[in-house]
Amino acid sequence: MSQINVVVVGAGVIGLSTALVLSKHKNLNVTVVSKHMPGDYDIEYASPWAGANFMPVGKESSKLRAFEKASWPEVDRLCREIPEAGIHYQECRVYGRKKDEGTTVGIWFQELMKEDPWFKDLMPELRILDKSELPPSCDTGMVFKSVCINTAIYLPWLLGQCLKNNVIIKRGVLTHISEAPSYHSTGNASIIMNCTGLLTSKLGGVMDTTVYPGRGQIAVVRNKPGAMHTTSGTDDGSDEAMYIMQRAAGGGTIIGGCLQHGSWEGEVDPNLANRILQRAVDICPSLAPKTGKVTELSVIRHGVGLRPMREGGIRLEKERIGKDWVVHNYGHAGYGYQSSWGSAWEAERLVLEILEKEGKRAKL
Ligand code: FAD
């Protein structure tokens, strides 16, 4: 069986999921090369900073919606069957406020807040909340069963699954996409998977100028909320958000946040940090059951991550660059985990298309 060499550039949730899906084909010989790896915390590396939960936001006819639909059954299966992946079920409560329509956060969560959501048959146990069940500041609400992924467990788990399937993992920093084949364990490769997230905007041969950062600031606390909570916005500005999610297996509770388009700022803003904590306690008093005050929150750390935004949404397509085939898989903004499996399977389909064109076959 002749081997086909593939290099995956990037070891975020998108690169690792893509590598894992491709590595299930016996004749695909996969190497991952990346500047950052699971275990690193860096402003250029989005994946560790995510909450990460599953709240569908894909608009009609978008790739994102298709990938969210495809990804949920797999995330659900991992949660049920693979405890070491670090995922647990959480009730997800979402609250809409009419005044957030058209704000930065309101637009992000537009589909999530609809009273007749497209995902009513996807997410289990979905129920519209009665007015009496809403916080006083909110007009609408819904609850459904979702998950929270502990990224500090899940990313190393994905990496471990790749190693188990004989994927070679390497550190490397590419200045141009055409350097990728030289990182393959054999020194050559005919297919490159571009999973470089935000840094795609700076990668030679691609330099996608429609990719930009969506800054998110978070706090991780030891307190337990009882359920995940999200509102359609806040009174502190169009791009300030309120979400709370408790990670699996002692990972703490992530409290966010904001969506600051175009900001590369990696430092924590202490004033924003105070607003983030206050908003969370206001919406979810059970975070501070004794006093109802922010001072009861036990902060593990504050952090900042940059979501890989892209005008026009996720890019998943194949392109010839020089003599190499490149499959692009980037631009997953604030929904890379909940669209990861759908994206990886679409990337796989494009690889199979390339091989078919060349009279080759990948074998499972
Ligand atoms: P990254 O994780 O940034 O990985 C890119 C990889 O490419 C890195 O390994 C990097 O080193 C490598 N790379 C880049 N350029 C080069 C180069 N030139 N040479 C070598 N390697 C290179 N999503 C959800 O689904 N649910 C959530 O609840 C959620 N919450 C979020 C909260 C915050 C605060 C943030 C910031 C994001 C959140 N997201 C969430 C979004 C999610 O984190 C991203 O969509 C996802 O991590 C993107 O993954 P990626 O692999 O494309 O990018």
What does this structure look like?
The chain has helices spanning 13-23, 63-81, 104-108, 151-164, 270-283, 340-357, and strands at residues 4-9, 28-34, 87-96, 127-128, 140-149, 168-171, 191-194, 211-221, 228-231, 240-246, 253-258, 260-261, 299-310, 315-321, 324-330. The protein starts with a strand and ends in a 7-residue tail after the last helix. Helices cover 22% and strands 27% of the residues. The radius of gyration is 20 Å and the shape is elongated. It has a single domain (4-357), classed as D-Amino Acid Oxidase, Chain A, domain 2. The mean pLDDT is 97. The protein is of the alpha/beta class. The chain has 6 helices and 15 strands. Strands 3, 4, 5, 8, 9, 10, 11, 12 and 13 form a 9-stranded mixed β-sheet that branches. α1 (13-23) links the parallel β1 and β2. The site of flavin-adenine dinucleotide (FAD) has 43 residues, from α1, β8, β11 and β13. This is FAD dependent oxidoreductase.
In short:
Helix content is about 20%, strand content about 25%. The protein is α/β, with parallel strands linked by helices.
Strand content: 25-35%
CATH superfamily caption:
D-Amino Acid Oxidase, subunit A, domain 2
Our measurement of the CA-to-CA distance between the termini, rounded to an integer number of angstroms, reads 12 Å
Which class do the helix and strand fractions yield? alpha/beta
Order of helices and strands: EHEHEHEEHEEEEEEEHEEEH
Q: What is the class in the CATH system?
A: Alpha Beta
Q: Uncertain runs with pLDDT below 50, 5 residues or more?
A: none
DSSP summary: helix tally: 6
